[in-house]
Amino acid sequence: MNNIYLDHAATTPLDGRVFAAMRPYLGPQFGNADSRYSLGRSASLAVLSSRDKIASLIGGSGGSLYFTSCGSESNSWALKGVCAANFGKKNKIILSAVEHPSLLRAAEDMAAFGFKTELVFPDSSGIVRPEAVERALNRGGAAFVGVMYANNETGVIQPVDDICRLCRTAGTFFFCDCVQAAGAVPLRCGFADGISLSAHKFYGPKGVGALWIRRGAKLGRLVSGGQQESGMRGGTSNVAGIVGMAEALSLACEGMEAESIRVAKVRDVFLNELFSRLKDVRLVGDRASRLPSNANVMFGGCRGEEIMMSLDGRGVCVSTGSACSSGASKPSGVLLAMGLSEEEAASCVRFTFGRDNDEEQAVRAALLTAETVAALRGE
Ligand code: PLP
User: What's the 199 CA to ligand 1 centre distance in angstroms?
Assistant: First the structure.
């Protein structure tokens, strides 16, 4: 039986064209980008042109783009680096309660240095209201505000332009985790002071991410050592990964409009088929302001984990909670923050569609899910 992979928010398969672009740097072009002979210079050129390519794809010429190892590193660096630059001046961090753990935990780490975190909760549709961020800003002393572009569990897209305007007025650094949005929706990073990306979410390789920071914004160094990444993050560059990231983003941006219409249709075929077969199911999170790939569904009277395990046995890959925490059995913090009860949160399953899914798969997945849920309910 063929697998139906419906967990593209966790990770995406590597695009063959991306692998082809990376291949020379995993083979004959293996040079260290800091070496001064021609083998090194060609690696350095590849890093340079990849940096320019990504910066131009995200409209980031007015800032610095640093390569990292993943989205989590970019997020953690942004928060800790901005707090370090503000040490002794401002000591408050404002985060939405639905941020990725790499920001939430980084803020907890900063408590040891006197930083206090204020969480802003979303409404029941998962949207973080600008007024709520404004109230937190008005209480003063904030060094950093973090609200993600699109949520990894619900796919809900946040009003980040409005939130950024409020931060500009307050003179506070606005950071936007764009890990789920990059490659899926058009992104111009000028709306924020810092954004994060991760290549494996847009059909690029695992182990490479980026942090973009607006020119003039203050950020502490992450890794002391060599002069890589303008001396801000020492360490030999992951040349093949960086080349792959640039190629993957470029391909994703090229086909974005058509793919986002197509994938939304596949997702909606799945939802319509599922909802026509089952009672007591509902979509979690705002329907309109969400990524085209995401369907987070609550199945009354069932545990999401049981549905996931049972679907796994039938060749369908889905997830409960975020991928990074799916080993844990605690209900999703994102769903609890939206006001769901523990029981409701534990009965949700995230289906995220991608390039490799078509309508036929969507119908089959809906049928298998409906059968699974009916069996678990004893119907
Ligand atoms: N931010 C969001 C919104 C994510 O969904 C993820 C991963 O799922 C991350 C950050 C972390 O990215 P990475 O897996 O590259 O560390």
Answer: 10
Measured distance CA(242)–CA(346) in Å, rounded: 38
Distances (CA, A) of 354 to 4, 156, 258, 297, 313: 11, 17, 12, 17, 21
Q: What is the mean pLDDT of the chain?
A: 96
User: What pLDDT, in 10s, does the model give residues 109-165?
Assistant: 999 999 999 999 999 999 999 999 999 999 999 999 999 999 999 999 999 999 999
| Domains in the chain: ranges and CATH | 4-12+256-377 (3.90.1150.10), 64-234 (3.40.640.10)
Contact 236, 10 (CB under 8 A): no
Dist CA 329 CA 4 (whole Å): 24
Q: Looking at residue 223, what DSSP letter applies?
A: B
Mean pLDDT of 348-360: 98
Do 168 and 138 meet the contact criterion of CB atoms below 8 Å apart?
Answer: no
Tell me the CA–centroid distance for residue 100 and ligand 1, in Å: 7
In this structure, which residue's CA is closest to atom 8 in ligand 1? 10
What per-residue confidence (pLDDT) applies to 328? 53
pLDDT digits (tens, 9 = 90+) for 231-270: 999 999 999 999 999 999 999 999 999 999 999 999 999 9
DSSP 313-351: HTTEE-BSS-GGGTTS-SPPHHHHHTT--HHHHTTEEEE
Q: Is 324 a catalytic residue?
A: yes
Give kind and range of the element (H or E) at residue 143: strand 142-146
Indicate the SS3 state at residue 209. Answer: strand
SS3 3: coil
Q: Looking at residue 322, what is its pLDDT? A: 47
Percent of the chain at pLDDT above 70? 97
Rounded Cα–Cα distance for residues 19 and 151 (Å): 28
Question: What type of residue sits at position 126?
Answer: G
Binding site membership of 148 for ligand 1 (Cβ less than 6 Å)? yes
Q: Which of 83, 167, 178, 324 is catalytic?
A: 324
What's the predicted TM-score (pTM) here? Answer: 0.97
State which ligand 1 atom lies nearest to the alpha carbon of 70: 15
Give the separation between CA 305 and CA 320, rounded to whole angstroms.
6
